[in-house]
Structures are given as C-alpha cells and as structure tokens.
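quick one, 281 residues, struct below
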Amino acid sequence: MRLARLIPIVLIALACAVPSRAQDAEGAKDHPMFSRMPGYQIANYDATDFGSFDFEIGKDVPKKVEGRYWRIDYEVKEGGKKAGPLQIGRNYTDLIVKRGGKKLAEVLDSGGGTTTAVLPAAGSKGALWLQIEVNNGGDGYVLIVVEEGAMKQDVEFTAGELAEALKTKGRIALHDILFDTGKATIKSESAAALAPIGELLTSDPSLALEIQGHTDNVGAAAANLTLSQDRAAAVKAYVVEHFGIASSRLTTAGLGDTKPIGDNKTDEGKARNRRVELVKK
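---
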C-alpha cells in the first residue's frame, strides 16, 4: 500500500526532472557544432541538405552562400534570464575565431543587431558560415549556418531526353558527370548520369557521338586543355567498359576553357562551364 502511494510522487519527481529542452519546438535540435545560450529554448527550426543565405559581411553587397543550411530561432524560456546582444553575438563569433576562423562583421547594440563569421574549409567540408541576429535586446536570437557545398543531383536526364536533344539540337551539355578536382577520375556518384548515355547508345546502334570535355578558366590554359581531353577520354572508356559500346562509335575532344557558356567571373558561371557535351556525329 505504501509502495502504491509512492508511485505518484516518483512520477511527479521524474516529470520535474525532464530537461528544459523538452520545451523546444517539435523536431528541433541545436546545430551539431554550436550549443545554445543558457536559458534559451528553440522556437523555430529549419534544416535542409541544400539551401542558401545572404550573409552580411560589412559591405553593401551581402555574400550569397549555398550548401547545407540551418536556421534555428531561440527565445528566452519563461522565467529565464536573457543575455545581452553583444554577449550572445560574441559567444558564437569568438568561438569561430578560436577555431581559426574570422569575424567578418559586427553591428550590435543594446537593442540587438547582427554579427557574421566564417570558418575556412577543412578536409572534405566546405567553409562554414555563421550569422547571429539578435532581437529585442536579447529576448530572442537567430542562428543561421551554411556549410558550403554543391547540391546533390537527384534528377537526371533520361535516355529519351538525351535522344530528343540530340535530334533537335545536335548536342547536349551534361553538368552532373563529376570528376576529382584537377583530375580525370570519374566520381562514383556520376553513375546515375552516365547510365542514360549507355541506354541511349544501346537502343540506337546507328548512333555515333563525340564526347567533349570543357573546363572553367581556373589554372593555365594548356593544363585545362589537357585535363578536358583526359576527362572526355575517361567518359568514353567508362561507356565502352560498362555498357559494351563499340569504341569506334565514340570519338573524344577536349576544348579546355575555350568555349564558355557561363561567366567565369562568378562561381555559378564557372560551374556551368565545367561540363561534358555529347555531340551527334
């Protein structure tokens, strides 16, 4: 009987012992690299594998960064003690600086404001960008993080779409055949983009193609020319080996950076210029 009376008391004690983070928005969690300020909870949470944000960097034009994206909105818990805007902002940017990064901008006063920092790329990860936006004197703040990186290509051309483009235009540019940086080694994730080429050539035995390699203008022109030739040859070798296509049906050409289709002054333009083109013979 005494045990039965103790059960409600134990349950109440356990409920009181639940961490305060139970007040966070459903499905929300801190960024894997950054904890929250003490006394705050998550009001809103958004994380995606690929997104973009315009970071304030102390100039008139913000810096647009694309990659893995987080936005976490924090607010003071009921009855909690808020921190000052300067305290909040510098807790994050100082951490970036201690890890070898750089503070890019800080516009914070007693009412709030914004501060931005960047951590250089490390290993296979791109640079990590962070911005803190403090509101209402510290009642709430927003943590925005983007880890630079390219989007995973989930949608590919089908063999039918390749055939239609070659029929109507005589050529098609492919941007999702990827290579190791500065090399002609095809990355494994390119298999989905190469499969329709093999399917098309198998279904139409009369079709012959020239495989062209193109680069951006980073590096010496002669080196880019050689690299583009090697990459075109690598694609041909892949198609012959994996799909049993006769080598005689495929020729290759490398044009280096001589035929840009994008502006080499921008990252987006350079990405467009790095491509493989199929040309109907």
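The radius of gyration is 27 Å.
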